[in-house]
Amino acid sequence: FYLSFQTPVATIRPFNTYGPRQSTRAVIPTIITQAVSGAEQIRLGSLHPTRDLLFVEDTVAGFLAVASSDVCVGRVVNVGTGTEISIGELAARILALTGRGETPIVTDQERVRPRGSEVERLICDNRLAAQLTGWRPTVSLDEGLTRTIAWVREHLNRYRAGYQV
Q1: Tens place of pLDDT per residue across the chain (165 aa)
Q2: Whole-structure pTM over 0.85, yes or no?
Q3: Which residue in 101, 106, 94, 81 sits closest to 142, CA to CA?
Q4: Counts for the chain of helices (H) and strands (E), in that order
Q5: Under a CB-based contact definition with an 8 Å cutoff, are residues 126 and 61 in contact?
Q6: Which stretch of DSSP H or E encloses residue 85?
Q7: Contact at 8 Å (CB) between 28 and 148?
């Protein structure tokens, strides 16, 4: 629309946003729900793919920064942390934060994505966002996970471990 009609728009590409109220269709609430429900093992799909995880407050701040910046008009701006973590490492970190660090993490073949459909590595280059707007993420992964774990614990009745909601 910017190129065709000179509409003053910017495109923002947020990376893997997570936080309170997220559905268990996403990996972080899936892991947390299983952990805080006392599952004997954490059942996931592939453990090796990596993701760049951005806490919801940082995602919102990124949207606001890009939307309020005239220099972003006509540009595509990535918003993410610039760091990656594998799903297996993420699960281990969540287990440690929930006090369930010894819980086994297993691959459930029914949760593995079909061949050729898995994104193996997803990491953000957020330099343009920082350059154009000064935006940078402020919530660390451990802080964001801790806050999300607390929310899920408080609202566990909304979730069923091992099921999507």
Answers
A1: 888 888 999 999 999 999 999 988 899 999 999 999 999 999 999 999 999 999 999 999 999 999 999 999 999 999 999 999 999 999 999 999 999 999 999 998 887 888 887 888 999 999 999 999 999 999 999 999 999 999 999 998 887 665 443
A2: yes
A3: 94
A4: 6, 8
A5: no
A6: strand 85-86
A7: yes
